[in-house]
Amino acid sequence: MDLYEKLLSGEEKLSLVGLGYVGMPIAVAFARKIKVVGFDLNEKKIELYKAGVDPTNEVGGEVIKSTTVEFTADPSKLKEAKFHIVAVPTPVNPDHTPDLTPVEGASRILGQNLQKGSVVVFESTVYPGVTEDICVPILEKESGLKCGVDFKIGYSPERINPGDKVHRLETITKIVSGMDEETLEHIFDRTYTGGHGFGLLNCKGIIDKYKKISSLFSPCNIQAESEPGKGSKFTFRLPCGIRKMQMILMLALMLIGCNIPSAVLGSTRKNVSMHRTDKHRTDRHWGNKQTSRLLQKAASYADSAYFSNINGTYERTLAMADSSRSYLNRYYLTLNPDGKYLMVAHPMKGTAAEIQWLHDSLPTNYEVILDIRNESAVAALALHKWELYDSNNKVYTQLFRERSADNSLDNYVRTMQTSENSKAVAIVLLIILLLQLPLAYYLLYYRHILRYRYAVEKINAINKVLLSGDSNTDKLKQITGIWTPSGSNNIRNVQLFPQLNEVVERISQALKQSIDMQQNEATNIEMAEDELHRAEYENGKLHIANSVLDNCLSTLKHETMYYPSRIRQLIDSTPEDVTSLQELVDYYKAIYTMLSAQAMEQVEGTVKCDADLLAYLRKLITGGVKDFTYQEATSSSAYVTCQYILHDIPFDATRHPHLFTPLTSDMKYLVARQIVREIGEATNLRGCGILAKPSSDGKLMIEIVLPEKIIKTKI
252 exposed, middle or buried (CB, 10 Å; 0-12, 13-18, 19+)? Predict the structure, then answer.
């Protein structure tokens, strides 16, 4: 009972791997006749199917409820089935190539649960070669089974149109293909008995032998196709060059391989035997009468072997063949007493003795040897002694090929093949030449037209930009985008249009120069406007300063008149009230500070920061000091730190930290501080400053931070 009958009887199950819009209708359809296991990795989908819900909307919920399909997400349930249909989807990647991940995953799961004797049919839509090159290796690796031996493969591409309620699975035409060639292999197998096995086997053997002779015969094969009611068709595949010899080869195969009825060949055999005997006389190299008698007896026993086969006494055939071999071996020993190559009935290993004789050019009757090997093979085939048949047929075929085959066949086939190939090459070259004509037209003519059009378009675009009312900056940007964009277009423009590229470069340079001139003019105008605003500002500032100075002078005049009497009053009344006295002193210091500050506003050259002002600042700091040291250090890109070390004055930690503050008692230091502040205001560098600190040897050091651009005058 085969698998099909077991499925119908219920002994075996069918599995559907993948229960989508393709697999579900197939599973439901098969479940009406046989037992079906429906497998899918989506557990939620399986639960819906078990609840009678059809998420695919292909068969409907009522059909799902009534079906006998055994829904499961357990891969081990696949072991219960012998016939498997894989119907997983094949999505498409973003690059439009098929994504084989579902098919590979399904093959892997199925292979892990595949049983010996199973059949696997792939329903998924894939390109040719996927089944053999991808799916089969996965199945073999996971199962440990051999495809074609332990399990079979088939392919039936899905034809279902999702959502189509008219063209359903039951109404469309399906395409089914399989790998099974058991019939072909069976026909050409020696175990086949029906009266034709030996002839077909020899035909196949001759084809295989010629395939081993030369690579020219590698495409050769013999095939058989059978169809009930129509008979069988046998097909030979041969090289192009041997088509003219096809009838001759067919006739030779029939004469060699087929069992000719004895009633037809009885009388003919006698003539052949007599002809062979005559040929013995012509081919022999007789040494003496003894060796002649040995070969005659060998030929007689060979004839007896033939007639034994005609009469159906196959055991007697083998005995007659043994006798013939015995006389042939005795003949060999007469020529080579020490020879070690003797014919045997069943040569299994190494080179047969008669083949070695032929290679050593031994003068014997090889026609007799061919006869006894052929008759022995026929008798062994009739007695079903397959190993004996194989060994004798092998020796016969090899000896016949080396002695009787046409050695010029290779050259003939090669010549014809070369001729056919030359014609094919000529046709291919002609086609290639014709295909090159459009390319030549493009390279020689049309490409230049395209270049000319491209250049004209670019020139028109550049002229349009130049004639527009846009600014030069916008024009330059637009022209750069038109002619020299980033990437390959820039390289192409430079290489293909060198003259035009030079013109565009000149236009760009002119625009750049114009833009630079406009920017310089704008900068000069801006600086002039700034200078005007500064002058106006300083004029207003001077007016205000004069007003403040007048007020300060008036206040100072009034307070000066009141100052002595107030001090006297404080001293006479409360001599211990030092706090009030200190407040009075601070008050007058503040007034004098304001006065000095406003006076400095009116000093000529304060804003200009000229050399006279810097010399005056140096005189204020070092006046009256004979021994001092001056040094500079760049603190940043905009400032310079100037240090005066007064070696005659020790640093006083109580008085000197306040030397440049309103608390100082020396007016010149307040003026020096104001000059530094005004330099910072004039140069818009507010990091300028002055302070007193101790030097490394404990002397008074005055540190001034001034703008770098005015230090060129060297304080």
Answer: middle
